[in-house]
Amino acid sequence: MKLDFRFAVISDLHIALPHTIWDSPSRFHLVEVSIPAFEQILEQLEQLELDFLLLPGDLVQHGERENHQWLADRLAKLPFPTYVVPGNHDVITRQGCDRTLPLADFPRLYQSFGYSNPEQLYYRQEILPNVHLIGLNTNAFDAEGQPFNSGYIDAEQLAWLDAQLAELADRPERFVMVMLHHNAIEHLPGQAKSAMGQRYMVRNAGALTERLKAAGVPLMFTGHLHVQDIARCGSLYEITTGSLVSYPHPYRLLHLWTDSQGQKQLQIESTRVEAVPDWPALQTTSQTWMSDRAFPFMVKLLTDPPLCLAPSEAKAYAPQLKDFWANVAAGDAVFDYPHLPQPLQRYFHRFSAVDADGMPQAIDNNAVLAL
C-alpha cells in the first residue's frame, strides 16, 4: 500500500493562561508567549490540508488543571485530529491537588486526543488506514508519588507494547510511529551517561528501542530536551522538536509518502514563530534571554564529568560560551571555539551537526529521510 499523508509536530507548549504564570527570574521558558504563539501556529496549520497534529508532551506550564482544560477545549475546535502524550510538566505529582492534574485524570481529560481507554496512560490508534500511532507514557513516580528524575517505561506498559507490536506484525502493510515525551536515543554526545543528560532520557531506553527496531518501527517523536535534533539508532529515527516557548520557538511540518520504487520517504520542514503581540522581535529577544541565563548551566556543564573543571576555571570560561545552548537548541550548529584550550575545543566540537567524516550534516531542521 502506498502512503501519502501530511502532519505537524509542536512540542513542549507549556501553555499558561496569564493569571497562572509564576515568576522565576532564572527560567529559560518564555511561557508568556505560549498562547499567542500556539494560536498563530494553529491559524497557519488550519490553512493546510493536514491529516493530524502531534503534541509530544509538556502541554502546560506546570500541571495546572485550568491550563489543561483550556488546551483540551482549544484542541477540540481544530479541523484535524490531534494526539497527545504527557510530559513531566503535565503531571507534577502522581495524586495532583486541587490546582494540579493527577496522573489518572490525564487520559480522561484528553480522551478525544488518543486515549480511547480513559483508564490507560498509553494507547494505539489507527489514525489513517494502515497507519498506527503508539502513544507512550514516560512519566514515572516513586512510592510517595514524587516524579523520577528521568523518564521510565514500566513492565506493564512494555508488556502491553509487546502485545501491540505482535498484533501489528500480522499486518504486513501497516506503518507504525511512536510518540513519547522523554528521549530514547541520545541527541547530545554522552547524553545517556551524563547526570544532566539522563534527566531528559528514558531510563530503560534500550528496552524500548530494541523492541521497536525488532518490529521494524522507523519513527519516534519526542520533546523534553527543547532542541531541534534528529537522531538515529540503526533503522530507527527519533525526531525531537524544540519548545514552543523557548528559542527558536519551532514547529515542524512533515510529509510522508511512498515513492515510485516503493521506498517510504519523510520530508521534514521546520519553521519558527518570529513574533507575537508584545514580542515583536521574539527571535532576538528569546535568544538573548537564553544566553543571559546560561551562566549557571554552563558552569555545571564544565564542572561535571567528563570535563570536571575546577569551579574557578568553569566560571572563567562560561561567559565565553553563553550562546552555546541557544545554538544547540536551534539545531544544525557547527561549534568552533579557537580561543579555548584544546580539550574544550574538542569537547564542544562533538556537539556539531557533522557526519562521520566531520562534514556538515544539516538535517535537524529540514531533511528528507528514507525510512
Automatic annotation (TrEMBL):
InterPro entries reported in the protein's UniProt record: Calcineurin-like_PHP, CNP_phosphodiesterase-III, Metallo-depent_PP-like, Pesterase_cyn
Supply one GO molecular-function term: hydrolase activity
Q: Which UniProt keywords apply?
A: Hydrolase, Iron, Metal-binding
Q: Which Pfam family is one of those matched by this entry?
A: Metallophos
User: Does Iron show up as a keyword for this record?
Assistant: yes
Q: Where is the Calcineurin-like phosphoesterase domain?
A: 5-227
What's the family? Belongs to the cyclic nucleotide phosphodiesterase class-III family.
Identify this protein by name. Answer: Metallophosphoesterase
